[in-house]
Amino acid sequence: MTKTDRPSAFPTWGAFENWTALIVHRRHANVDAITQQLQRIGVDAVECWPDVPENADITPFNIVFFDVDMGYDGQFPWQPQQAPVPTVALIGSEAPGRIDWALRQGADAQLIKPIGSAGVYSALVIAMHNFHRRHALATEIGALRESLDQREAVAQATAIVMLAENLSPKQAYQKLRLAAMAERISVEAAARRFLNEQQAGPDRERA
């Protein structure tokens, strides 16, 4: 597989000039058709088959086209649905096993083979949109999970203080809040530290 020195960058919506595409497909007329369409919109193409080496530098590439018909597990140096760039599945066979494999890869768009004289531009637009939307959603879910974990930590710490010092929920939370203010940290951070200290106590006793 050849590489370029062009850094990976996402352009403005629909502008793909100076992009580089990696096409993971055996030599075929479909590859030629994709390459010709890419060239018309200013996208360079690099071919690679049968797999992308584990130590391959993916950073020069802005998008990956991959063959579903002959694809296999472990073909890429990333886990399924964790490609670092948008991906487009090239589908010829409608065999259930092939469709299932394609779905597990988490492609951002698809092209049906045989490839004609159009369709690549639309696939690029859809793939880029879905890739960014998927990553934005993952970031949002991660933030929500972190917020939930922090709230649970505060609730647990408050409950422990209530039981240990026979305080009301409001009093226990206020004590936790004052401790956080004294340390100049958030209540959530104070709660997490308190829980860690509580956990460390029994561990030291067992040691």
TrEMBL record:
<dbReference type="InterPro" id="IPR001789">
    <property type="entry name" value="Sig_transdc_resp-reg_receiver"/>
</dbReference>
<dbReference type="InterPro" id="IPR049021">
    <property type="entry name" value="AmiR_N"/>
</dbReference>
<dbReference type="InterPro" id="IPR036388">
    <property type="entry name" value="WH-like_DNA-bd_sf"/>
</dbReference>
<dbReference type="GO" id="GO:0003723">
    <property type="term" value="F:RNA binding"/>
</dbReference>
<dbReference type="InterPro" id="IPR005561">
    <property type="entry name" value="ANTAR"/>
</dbReference>
<dbReference type="InterPro" id="IPR011006">
    <property type="entry name" value="CheY-like_superfamily"/>
</dbReference>
<dbReference type="Pfam" id="PF21332">
    <property type="entry name" value="AmiR_N"/>
</dbReference>
<protein>
    <submittedName>
        <fullName>AmiR/NasT family two-component response regulator</fullName>
    </submittedName>
</protein>
<keyword id="KW-0597">Phosphoprotein</keyword>
<dbReference type="GO" id="GO:0000160">
    <property type="term" value="P:phosphorelay signal transduction system"/>
</dbReference>
<feature type="domain" description="Response regulatory">
    <location>
        <begin position="20"/>
        <end position="128"/>
    </location>
</feature>
<dbReference type="Pfam" id="PF03861">
    <property type="entry name" value="ANTAR"/>
</dbReference>
<feature type="modified residue" description="4-aspartylphosphate">
    <location>
        <position position="67"/>
    </location>
</feature>
<dbReference type="InterPro" id="IPR008327">
    <property type="entry name" value="Sig_transdc_resp-reg_antiterm"/>
</dbReference>
<feature type="domain" description="ANTAR">
    <location>
        <begin position="134"/>
        <end position="195"/>
    </location>
</feature>
